[in-house]
């Protein structure tokens, strides 16, 4: 295993290309921690945004005009404002007025840290798009199928959970795929509130080692691999749910 670090160190000495993450254990650990944080942000926000999308789409068809109006307002607000502004609003705006504790030096310690705020803001941002994606899938479900579920004694909630949502999911998975891929790339905005994700870690490394070009290459390849893995998982999920002749 020492061959790879030795090769990259020799590459630096002979060509000047300084990929420190591949031969310096300290930089390697910072890079791996950054990738791990990006994965945590991605998985957390994907799960939360899917839940928000499914619940929001259900509530869009609620009998109450107030509930429907609140959901529509949520979608308009979070879909039409930049995700970076939303992250700043939650971290610097909402976070500043919430109660906080103090550390041993008397400094303010918020109960919700920057990682939590990034997850909340990005989940709501992607969730707003997911509400509309799920709604489009629900509209593709034949009314006769819904009526058949109701005739079998399903309540509105049970019909949605066991019949409508599984069928709608098959239709809206391609659009959902695109939104979740965008969400993975949008996690880089957490850099703005000092969340130590991949971009943040790589920026620290190139600031100290002055190897911007090499670390940018590492950054592009890293996100290419992460997006490729997510796309592969989504395609496998889409293929497993596909019903021949339905929804395509």
From TrEMBL:
Record's signal peptide: none
CDD domains the record matches: TM_PBP2 (cd06261)
Protein name: Polar amino acid ABC transporter, inner membrane subunit
Domain of life from the UniProt record: Bacteria
Family recorded in the similarity comment: Belongs to the binding-protein-dependent transport system permease family. HisMQ subfamily.
One GO location term (cellular component): ATP-binding cassette (ABC) transporter complex
Task performed by this protein: Part of the binding-protein-dependent transport system for glutamine; probably responsible for the translocation of the substrate across the membrane.
Species, as recorded: Ancylobacter novellus (strain ATCC 8093 / DSM 506 / JCM 20403 / CCM 1077 / IAM 12100 / NBRC 12443 / NCIMB 10456) (Starkeya novella)
GO molecular function, one term: transmembrane transporter activity
Segments passing through the bilayer: 37-59, 71-97, 117-138, 215-234
């Amino acid at each position: 295993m020492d061959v790879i670090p030795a090769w990259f160190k020799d590459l630096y000495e002979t060509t000047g290309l300084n990929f420190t993450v591949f031969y310096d254990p300290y930089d390697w650990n910072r890079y791996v921690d950054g990738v791990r944080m990006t994965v945590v942000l991605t998985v957390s926000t994907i799960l939360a945004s899917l839940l928000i999308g499914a619940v929001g789409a259900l509530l869009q068809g609620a009998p109450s005009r107030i509930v429907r109006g609140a959901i529509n307002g949520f979608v308009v607000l979070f879909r039409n404002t930049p995700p970076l502004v939303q992250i700043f609003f939650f971290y610097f705006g909402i976070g500043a007025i919430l109660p906080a504790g103090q550390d041993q030096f008397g400094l303010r310690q918020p109960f919700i840290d920057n990682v939590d705020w990034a997850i909340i803001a990005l989940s709501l941002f992607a969730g707003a798009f997911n509400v509309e994606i799920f709604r489009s899938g629900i509209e593709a479900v034949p009314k006769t199928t819904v009526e058949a579920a109701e005739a079998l004694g399903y309540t509105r909630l049970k019909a949605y959970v066991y019949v409508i949502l599984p069928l709608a999911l098959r239709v809206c998975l391609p659009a959902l795929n695109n939104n979740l891929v965008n969400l993975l790339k949008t996690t880089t905005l957490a850099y703005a509130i000092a969340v130590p994700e991949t971009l943040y870690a790589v920026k620290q490394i190139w600031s100290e080692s002055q190897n911007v070009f090499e670390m940018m290459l590492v950054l592009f390849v890293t996100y290419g691999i992460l997006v490729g893995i997510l796309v592969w998982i989504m395609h496998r999920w889409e293929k497993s749910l596909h019903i021949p002749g339905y929804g395509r």
